[in-house]
Amino acid sequence: MLKRTLPMVCIILGIVILLYPTVSDRYESYQQQKILKQWQENLQHIDQAASELESATEIVSSPTYGDESKSNNQLKPLSAEPTATPSPIPQKNIEGVLIIDKINLKLPILTDATVDNMKLSVASIAHTGKVGAIGNYAIAGHRNLTYGKNFNRLDEVVVGDIIEVDTGSKKYMYKVEDKLYVLPEDVWVLKGNGKDQEITLITCHPMENPTQRIVVKGKLIENKE
Question: Are 219 and 160 in contact (CB under 8 A)?
């Protein structure tokens, strides 16, 4: 019985091992899309609540015409009260969306490059700059083996390309000014120069048995509503 069962178990284990990378990649992609959808829905809820509040304020502040004495006797003072804001959908702490059209990249930026966050998407590095502010806004991501996955194609980005960060309220456009290959201990790439609004994207290189880091650095050229 054991002799018959053992080969079947080995075959099943082999299939599971072979399929695991594909299933894992698809699950991560699903999670990324789910986070993006939740982020967009939350923005819509905020916009809807703001629109309803504005409409309520306009109605209350509209002038009353006709017999003023009659109006004063019949109408009680009104005050604008905002419509209850729909409860936000529970989600990861998202700072915005990273977009690089050159490599067809669109990913949610999670706060803090922890192990768990990096499994899901790209994430900002703690104690670096903020988007649009003077300093160096640093974002890290895995360079997955699957084509186009996370920072898999970051090596294709060159000087002059555009990096966009969409926070929902503003869009920040950065122009790539440098691409470096550095050692893991070269943490100076995360520091700002104290005068510019910078962005730094960092991932491993090469994809298999990485010994270096690819670093793409850009400067803010535009921000718009």
Answer: no
Q: Read off the pLDDT of residues 67-122 as tens digits, 9 standing for 90 and up.
A: 444 444 443 443 334 434 444 434 558 999 999 999 999 999 999 999 999 888 99
Pair of tokens at residue 212:
């270096």
In this structure, the chain runs to a length of 225
CA dihedral 151, 152, 158, 160 (to 10 degrees): -40
Amino acid at position 189, single letter: V
Strand 171-182, strand 122-124: pairing: unpaired
Lowest mean pLDDT of 29-33, 153-157, 159-163, 190-194, name the range. 29-33
Q: What are the pLDDT digits (tens) for 131-151?
A: 999 999 999 999 988 888 899
Q: Which residues have C-beta within 8 Å of that of residue 86, sequence separation ≥ 6?
A: 45, 48, 49
Peptide bond into 90 cis (omega under 30): no
Dump the DSSP string for the chain. Answer: -HHHHHHHHHHHHHHHHHHHHHHHHHHHHHHHHHHHHHHHHHHHHHHHHHHHHHHHHHHHHSPP-S-HHHHHHHPPP----PPPPPPPPP---EEEEEEEGGGTEEEEEESS--HHHHHHSEEEPTTS--TTSSEEEEEE--B-SSTTSBTTTGGG--TT-EEEEE-SS-EEEEEEEEEEEE-TT-GGGG---SSSEEEEEEEEESSSS--EEEEEEEEEEEEE-
